[in-house]
Amino acid sequence: MTTKIVVSGMRPTGRIHLGNYTSVIKNWIKLQKTYSCFFFIADIHSLTTNLDNIIKLNYYTKIIIKEWLATGINPEKSNIFIQSHIPETFELHTILSMIAPVSWLERVPTYKAEKNAKTYGFLGYPILQGADILILNADYVPVGEDQLPHLELIRELVRKTNTVIKKITNSSIDVFKEPQPLLNYHKNILGIDGNKMSKSKNNTILISDESEILFKKIKKIKTDEKRINISISGTPDNCNIWKFHEIYSNIKTKKKIKTECLTAKIGCSDCKNILYKTIEIKNKTIIKNIKLYEKKEYYINEIIELGSNNARKIAKNTLKTLKDKLNIL
Fold first, then answer.
1. In terms of domains, do 175 and 220 share one?
2. Which residues contact 2 (CB under 8 A, 6 or more apart)?
3. Kind of pairing between the strands at 180-183 and 140-143
4. How far apart are CA 129 and CA 127, in angstroms?
5. Whole-angstrom Cα distance, residue 93 to residue 134?
6. Is residue 25 part of a domain?
7. Any idea what the CATH number is for the domain that residue 32 is in?
8. Which range marks the domain in which residue 15 is found?
């Protein structure tokens, strides 16, 4: 393991679904083998768009950590903590807010697209993201291609902050380093309605779905719309079930399914049944692990405390360095 630091977080707005697992968690499991990883529950971030649902915030915070552990995030290799437990992050956020131009924030695609939640916190969301990353002196941030603009804004902020501080202190030393992206190339999983899998759209398949619920959800997944009966050959690339098979099924199964779909030897219902059995095996293992961690509340609290302490050691040093430069006592 290198001393290079990786920082990434997840908002506690609902339980982990297959989209989260394939695009984020599986990547984290790989990264923890190579880097010094800090994975956090972004509880304060969740308030920007989930303020009406805070009654479940505490529950989701804890259950998601248990789900991380159940899927393979190892607390002996990764630091797991809660965003709100690192007060230095919010002090840094305030300082960075004094430097970041408002025009930079107004051009962020998610801000321009949002029509209802345009609060001060929503506008400043990228600055808080930057503080989460910079307070831990991160070398890398795992991102998908769609998240690169967000990271680039943070990198711009680093350059501007370094320039401002070097100018006012007559120094040539940068305070912050620019975090580099660790691109995570993954196949997107759509929800059971054919749209992007999202907790807000209620179209998810959870890693904690028991067999009966899982079966019902998989049966609802949209397939190739042009294949109206089994006698018509299918087009796997146009079928959401096939996208699941690409991720979850083994090579032999994928080859068989693709060949039989193209030659009209397998129907969509049978294809869904095979997928169900594959995911069911995975889910059963995860569910079993979750139930074990649900009996270990003291252990979960210990993990959070240890991860928070390790994060704060770095955070305190980062903040002190910055405040010394700015003559803040």
1. no
2. 34, 35, 36
3. parallel
4. 5
5. 10
6. yes
7. 3.40.50.620
8. 5-189+297-325
Strand pairing category for 5-10 and 36-41: parallel
Contact 74, 109 (CB under 8 A): no
Entry pTM: 0.93
9 has which bridge partners? 40
- Write the DSSP assignment of 36-95 as a string of letters: EEEEEE-HHHHHHHHGGGGGGHHHHHHHHHHHHHHHT--TTTEEEEEGGG-HHHHHHHHH
Residue type, 108: V
Q: Which residues contact 158 (CB under 8 A, 6 or more apart)?
A: 130, 134, 176, 177, 178, 179
Query: Within a domain: residue 22?
Result: yes
Assess whether 125 and 171 both reside in one domain: yes
Residues 62 and 165 in one domain: yes
* Total of domains in the chain: 2
H-run or E-run covering 5? strand 5-10
Per DSSP, the residues of 124-166 read: THHHHHHHHHHTTT-SEEEE-GGGHHHHHHHHHHHHHHHHHHH
pLDDT interval class at 320 (50, 70, 90): very high
pLDDT of residue 187: 66
Q: How far apart are CA 186 and CA 22, in angstroms?
A: 7
Dig out the tokens for 37 from the structure: 């990883």
Residues 258 and 226 in one domain: yes
Question: Are both 18 and 45 inside the same structural domain?
Answer: yes
Amino acid found at 125: Y
Within a domain: residue 203?
Answer: no
The label of the residue with tokens 């649902």 reads 53
Mean pLDDT of the 318-329 span? 93
pLDDT for 117 equals 62
Residues 304 and 283 both lie in one domain: no
- Is 281 among the domain residues? yes
Asked if 315 and 88 touch (Cβ cutoff 8 Å), the reply is yes
Are residues 257 and 316 located together in one domain of the fold?
no
Q: Residue 132's pLDDT band (boundaries 50, 70, 90)?
A: very high
